[in-house]
Design goal:
GO terms for molecular function: calcium ion binding. It is built from seven helices and four strands. Helix 1 crosses helix 2. The model has no long low-confidence stretch (mean pLDDT 91). Bound molecules: calcium ion.
């Protein structure tokens, strides 16, 4: 059903439509970020197997969102985000946490809505993985050439 044009693949707009009817509206940016993380490429096209993986991973993110929205406000504030990230194994400094809330809050109320929460977590997860690939001593420090750095970071900026 999600394969609207019957091509045998799901493109970014088809995925956006499929996921948005399920529970919430997703921005094309979040959808593309999901596709990038599941395919490792910037070709916005997935098959049935990846479609299932994306679908179930979103259910997982939804559960995390609901669990850490402690006050049931429908949004994740700074302390809720800190706990959610910690539970995922990401220990960010107060400075980074503050930057995340200002960047992903589109409401102006220092709180992050569902779609932006997913976008935020996917970005943190993806960037942390890129960093860890280079943190060979596991001491929180990594060496990048300029090129490697750009290759690691750019997909998250322009997904
Ligand atoms: Ca909340």
């Amino acid at each position: 059903m999600a394969d609207h044009d019957g091509s045998g693949f799901i493109d970014d707009k088809e995925l956006q439509r499929a996921l948005s009817t399920y529970s919430h509206a997703f921005s094309l940016r979040t959808v593309r970020l999901l596709m990038y993380l599941f395919t490792g490429s910037n070709i916005y096209r997935i098959g049935p197997k990846e479609f299932n993986l994306v679908f179930y991973s979103l259910q997982n993110w939804r559960a995390i969102f609901l669990k850490f929205d402690r006050d049931n406000s429908g949004k994740i504030d700074s302390s809720e985000l800190r706990e959610a990230l910690l539970s995922l194994g990401f220990s960010v400094s107060p400075f980074v946490l503050d930057m995340l809330v200002s960047k992903y809050d589109r409401t102006g109320r220092r709180a992050i809505e569902y779609d932006n929460f997913i976008e935020c977590c996917l970005t943190i997860k993806g960037l942390t993985e890129k960093f860890k690939e280079r943190d060979t001593m596991f001491n929180g420090s990594a060496t990048f050439t300029y090129d490697m750095f750009m290759f690691s970071v750019l997909p998250f900026l322009i997904a």
